[in-house]
Amino acid sequence: MNNETFDTLKQLLSQPKKIVIVPHQNPDGDAMGSTLALNIFLNKLGHAAAVVSPNDYPKFLKWLPQSDGVVFFDKDNSKANILINEAEMVFILDFNALHRTGDAMATVLENCKATFVMIDHHQQPDVFTDFMYSDVSICATSQMVYHFIERLDYLDKMDAAIATCLYTGIMTDTGSFKYKSTTSTTHRVVAELIDCGADNSDVHSQVYDNNSYHQLQLLGSVLKNLKVLPEYNTAYMYLTEADKDTYNFKKGDSEGFVNYCLSIENINLAAIFIEDKVQGIIKMSLRSKGDFSVNDFARNHFNGGGHINAAGGRSDVDLKATIKKFLSVLPQYKNDLNK
Ligand code: 5GP
Ligand code: MN
Known about the structure:
By secondary structure, the protein is of the alpha/beta class. The protein folds into two domains: 3-208, inorganic pyrophosphatase (n-terminal core), CATH 3.90.1640; 213-337, Diaminopimelate Epimerase, Chain A, domain 1 (Roll), CATH 3.10.310. It has helices at residues 3-12, 29-44, 77-86, 103-110, 141-151, 160-173, 184-195, 200-208, 213-224, 241-246, 258-262, 294-301, 319-329, 334-338; strands at residues 18-22, 48-53, 71-72, 89-93, 115-120, 131-134, 227-229, 234-239, 269-276, 281-288, 305-306, 310-315. The strands form two sheets. It has a six-stranded parallel sheet, sandwiched between helices. Helix 2 (29-44) runs parallel beside helix 5 (141-151), helix 5 crosses helix 6 and helix 6 packs antiparallel against helix 7. The two termini are 35 Å apart.
């Protein structure tokens, strides 16, 4: 987005507006961090802004500043509908295709006459918004929200609550600043956020030292079914509904499990398959190292997408058949995976 477009947006935001801010379904740390930060910022500017999320977010994010004000499209449907229908502006954050909010919410958003703004860092954005700030080179949408505020020349509005939300989003989307997408600019932004009041050590413990006993037992059971395929430099694991029942599974409990596959030596592709009886699908998380694009892999075979090294997808057949399909497509990628 060029400077002129930022100026136009600044002009639009110079009068108080009704604004709705939307993260993707099953929001993660970056989706929640970026939407909550933008919400606090826009309310500070004098707007009537609200975060409307397709559904609930995990327990390890429940402490985020102002997270208790989030309206859920699935649970608070009439309130969510009123907010969306009355909105003059809608911000789409951390996703780039309307279906990522789920079909019901996507339909309501499609019929909404507001001015749409996208701020997002995923690959291959759909073009459906009036303003599109899309940059696949930036590690987190939360870092983009920082640059957005910076380019509107409102960094003086940054406070501890906004900084804490943005810090959380950047930390979770970079695997605690370790992924390749983490740049010197990321570290400069994070340094500014700490200076503005983000308590880095506290954020780390709130997010990562928050496991229940059951969660670790669940991890143990998933690690027992981990399979390594040396010929494809691939490892995968799965989580069944039976395991979920045994260990009292809650949303977010399997966050990060797939990374254990990637931590094995010589593994370039990692996958976790999660049975989801509510949606009637197998949800997949995919991770890779190097040039192997799990965004392409998920788009080509599993109705998904994301980033080059982190993506998600889904399958409508059962767990066994999904894993069979996964194994059947690997041979065509053998050369790329062996690099
Ligand atoms: P996760 O595996 O942590 O759920 O998601 C990894 C990345 O891929 C995130 O940036 C997430 O937004 C994206 N992603 C996850 N599932 C899907 C999906 O079904 N479709 C698309 N387009 N992106 C996804
Ligand atoms: Mn993100």
